[in-house]
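hi support,

uploading two proteins for the ticket. first:
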Amino acid sequence: MDSFEGAATLEWWANRSTCLAGFGVRVAVRVSGNDWTCEAVPDPPLAGEDQDSFGFLMALDPVFTLRFDDESLLHVNVAVAGRDGRLTLTAYRAEPGEPAGTRALPYTPVPTRSAGRSPGNL
C-alpha cells in the first residue's frame, strides 16, 4: 500500500481511561520506502468552542491518538500546517530518558461500552 485516504478521529487522552476530546479528520497518508507522511483536515471544520478546545489541548500536549474506522490506532504528534486548518501528523516516539507513566507513552485506551471490542494497534 503506497497511500491511504479516508476518515479517522484524533483523540486526546488525559490518561488510560479518560478521553477528553475526539475530532473527526480526513487523512491522506503517503508511504515512500520506510518513511510516511500524513496530512489531516478536520471534518467537519472546527469552529467556535471546538477550535478553542483543540487549541487548548494542542498547547497542553500535541500528542493525540489517531483512530481509524477499523479501530486500529497510532499515537501521533500533531502540528498545524496552515491557516486553512490543515494538520501534519508524525509518528510519536518517546524521547530517550522520558519518565514512565507520562500521558504520551503508548497505552491501550479503554473502549467505550458502545464499541464492544478492544482497539487494535496499527
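and the second one:
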Amino acid sequence: MQGTIAIGESACNFFIINNIVNNLERGSMGGHCMEFTLGSNSKAPGALQVADWIRDRIRRGRMVPGQRLVEVEIIRQTGASRAKVREAFQRLEVEGLVEIEEYRGASVRDAGIDEVRQIYHCRAALEGLCAAEFIANASDDQREELMEIQRQLDECVEKHIPEQFGRLNLAWHRKLIEGAGNEVAASLLERLHVPIHRLMFESFYSTDRLSAANADHHRVIAAIKANDPVRANAEMQAHISAGLGVLSMLHEEVLA
C-alpha cells in the first residue's frame, strides 16, 4: 500500500519520528509483525486484531505519518470485514494513531515536535511518580526483576547492542510502572506513548547516548535502593527530560 507524505513541517516531523526514541512503546506482538492466515478454514479477524495489525505496521514504518489507510487493501490483506476494519480505525483514532476525516477516510496521524514535547513533559511527571511509588509498593520479586533487567542493559551498553537495549529499556520502564501499582498512572502513560511511532534505536542511540541513558537508570535504581522516593522521582524526571533534550536537538538539526 502506497501513501503520500506531506512536505514541509510534516516531512520534518516524519524525519524526527524516524530518529527519536520512545522509551516504552513497542508492539503488543513482541516486536514481530502480526500476520493473519487466510483461507477458507481461517476465522476472519476481529476489530481488535486488525487494530493490532495496523498498529504494528505503523511502529515498523510500513505505514507512515500522513499515509491514507485504504479499506479495500486492509480487507484484502487481513481477511477482515469492512465493518471490522472501520471499527479498528475508530479504536486507533481514540489511541491517537489514526485520524479520520469526513469524506477523506482514515490516515496515519502525524505527531509534531510540539506534541512530542508535551508528551514527554507529562511522561516525566507520571514516571517520576511511579519511580517514587515503586519504593513503597513493589514486591521483592519485582525489585529483583528490575535489577536483572538492568544487568542485561549494562551488557547491551558494553557490547553496544542498541536494538536489544531498546527492548530491555521498554521492559525496565514497564517494570517500574508495574511495581508502582498505580493503575491510573499506568493507563495514562500507555496512552501518552502511542502517537510516537517508527522509532529507530540504532539512529538515536550512539555509544555516548546509550551510556548516558543507562547511567540515568543507575541513578534511579540507586535512589530506589536507598528508599528515597523524592530522589527517585527527581532522577526519573531528569531521565525523561534528557530524552526530550536529544529530541529537541535533532529537531533543530533538521530545521538547520
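thanks. also noticed: The first helix runs from residue 9 to 17.
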